[in-house]
Amino acid sequence: MTVQPSDSILIVDFGSQVTQLIARRVREAGVYSEIAPFTMAEAAFARMQPKGIILSGSPASVLDANGPRIPQVILDSGLPILGICYGQQSLMHQLGGAVTGGDAGEFGRAFIEINDTCALFNGLWNIGEKHQVWMSHGDKVTSLAPGFRPVAASPGAPYAVIANDERRIYAMQFHPEVVHTPDGGKLLKNFVRHVCGLAGDWTMAEFRKTKIEEIRAQVGSARVICGLSGGVDSAVAAVLIHEAIGDQLTCVYVDHGLMRMGESEQVVSLFRGHFNIPLVHVDASTLFMKGLEGVTDPEAKRKFIGKTFIDVFEAEARKIGGADFLAQGTLYPDVIESVSFTGGPSVTIKSHHNVGGLPERMNMQLVEPLRELFKDEVRDLGRELGLPDVFVGRHPFPGPGLAIRIPGAVSRERADVLRKADAIYLEEIRNAGLYDAIWQAFAVLLPVKTVGVMGDGRTYDHVCALRAVTSTDGMTADIYPFDAAFLSRVATRIINEVKGINRVVYDYTSKPPGTIEWE
Ligand code: XMP
């Protein structure tokens, strides 16, 4: 059962890759929304009694006999409706307009010209102006259903935006939810606030309350176990779940000995000390280090760490008597990357480390309260829950930890050397006030030794590479352009203070073509 406030928007998902972004934009407008797959839209509609409906895009075609359809109750409801891309096409298809297969679709940036006034354009777009939007469609609307008028057009889409003011139904061929439609968020805001008349008083505090009710309804009196990775996501999920069900939750922190400086101590003191949450801290570093001995292949490292993590976690879960539910800090980007409407396989660039496979193996159901959130929203929620800023604002850290920042063989000694260099680098970044402007910064210890001179002597030590990138979601990234004085200050400190490193280089590769991590 889901609990929702009375003022809500139902988003009907026809399978677009970006449906969650619609929900995000609606949340940014201060309005609660829920997404329901089209197959369950009718039930969601009856349960939620929303104040407005948004229809998503889709990889399907309305011309296909089996193409998803809008439930008739929604069309008959008299509520405001906004159709996006496939949503527009299905509205026209079902209300008496026409759609034809695109011999030449439009993909990417396009400019639409505003031809008429429209409630969606209120305070935003005026007649005669041209605005950038993001198109991604094969089919297109070629004739309008009765009662609709065109209000904006692009060279490829004469009905780029259409309106039926009497029925308060609006639709657009482009995607307002993506960032490449710069005013898209405002168009969606106009729909939910101006057309649907919602107040815009939905906040993270409300989200917290709603989620707590949902978790209670899902879990009942059962036991939940949560694997903490040391990162922000699993910590926020755990604190939220603890607030919902108290000591029915046990957290297990499998410490592989490959964390950043001071991080394990911070997790333990935060959970046990600050939040008083039951926490099992397993120091499994010896097991991990032994298993990693001589392993140099990146995928072999990742697979070993992932599997060992699961083994240790499972053994600990058994010790505490098992659990019915497994809590995970899965975020929306993890969901989009892993689910595809068409079910086609995508290429594996890296085996990401998570506890995938564990729920089936241990016969557990999942509790994933952060599934619809993006990283920055998780941080907001973390602050809302009282997690300290320094913890919440921490740069992302990969599950396999420092092992994938030590190309070649990993050892405890190498991890210690890297940890020291990394800590100096991060300290300098914080001192320069740059930490929050950077998505991720870290040091990498190379398996390459070079000759140097220190004092009067020759040195023969490892090279350390520094990486810093900006990004919004980790999917693409740009290098952070430090000034030379900063980099040389960091290099000097690392070489002087960290035994085992005598040369420092800066990684100038964006993603793509590089990945953020080195392995
Ligand atoms: P790449 O290296 O693929 O990284 O460009 C993109 C983002 O994902 C993080 N990353 C991981 N996170 N488990 C995680 O939880 C992993 O196995 C993993 N590998 C990479 C990486 O730090 C960056 O933020």
TrEMBL record:
It catalyses: XMP + L-glutamine + ATP + H2O = GMP + L-glutamate + AMP + diphosphate + 2 H(+). Its EC number is 6.3.5.2. Gene3D superfamilies: 3.30.300.10, 3.40.50.880, HUPs. ATP binds at S229, G230, G231, V232, D233, S234, A235. Keywords: ATP-binding, Glutamine amidotransferase, GMP biosynthesis, Ligase, Nucleotide-binding, Purine biosynthesis. It is an enzyme of class 6 (ligase). This is GMP synthase [glutamine-hydrolyzing].
